[in-house]
Amino acid sequence: MDPVTSTSSPQATSSTVTVRGLLESLQAGDLDQALSLLDEQVVYSNVSLPTVHGRNGVERLFRPTLGRMGFRVFFHAIGTDEADSGVVLTERTDALVFGPVSIQFWVYGRFEIRDGFITLWRDSFDWSDMLMGLFRGVAGVALPFVRRSWPTSNGE
């Protein structure tokens, strides 16, 4: 099954393109491009972690870490809320990559877009899934069969 993009209007398409652009820019290591898609007053919330306020706050969080670690994203589904095309929902696999260690985990995201900029970025993940991803990532350095395989477009 291919990743799903549900769009019902040009604004909805634009909103999903903005969200993809943010995460794909982070994957490419282009923090400046990613930041350009955020509203000056963006709220970034990784549920269960402290909330970050403002584009400058997001930059302070990401700038020191992005060069030391890699980031990967795979979209299982991305679409807009039929009632509000300014709301984009994602289901994805993210990976934090530290040299040979890749920590893969499921993430569900909600993004709110206004005037072409992301005003809210809220991600939710399961700590046990992330810890299992850490275990499999570290163990996978010595035992490659333990690593999680990266998802593919056919739904694996």
How would the blueprint of this fold be written?
Elements: E1 4-6, H1 10-27, H2 31-36, E2 38-46, E3 52-53, H3 55-66, E4 70-81, E5 84-98, E6 101-114, E7 117-125, H4 127-142
Short description:
This protein is 33% helix and 41% strand. With 156 residues, the protein is α/β, with parallel strands linked by helices.
Molecular structure report:
The structure is a single chain. The protein is an alpha/beta fold. It has a single domain (4-140), classed as Nuclear Transport Factor 2, Chain: A, CATH 3.10.450. It has helices spanning 10-27, 31-36, 55-66, 127-142, and strands at 4-6, 38-46, 52-53, 70-81, 84-98, 101-114, 117-125. It has a seven-stranded mixed β-sheet. The chain is globular and about 50 Å long. Residues 1-9 have low confidence and may be disordered.
Structural category is alpha/beta
Euclidean distance between termini CA atoms: 9 Å
At the third CATH level, what is the topology name? Nuclear Transport Factor 2, Chain: A
Uncertain ranges: 1-9
- How many strands in all? 7
Q: Return the CATH architecture.
A: Roll
SS summary, helix count: 4
Total domains, how many?
A: 1
User: What fraction of the residues are assigned to beta strands by DSSP?
Assistant: 35-45%
**Largest sheet data:** 7 strands, mixed
What is the averaged pLDDT score? 89
Q: Could you say which overall geometry the principal axes of the C-alpha atoms support?
A: globular
What assembly state would you assign to the polypeptide chains in this entry?
Answer: single chain
Largest sheet, spatial ordering of strands? 1-4-5-6-7-2-3
- The CATH class is identified as Alpha Beta
> Rg to the nearest angstrom?
16 Å
**Secondary-structure element pattern, one letter each:** EHHEEHEEEEH
Percentage of residues in helical conformation: 25-40%
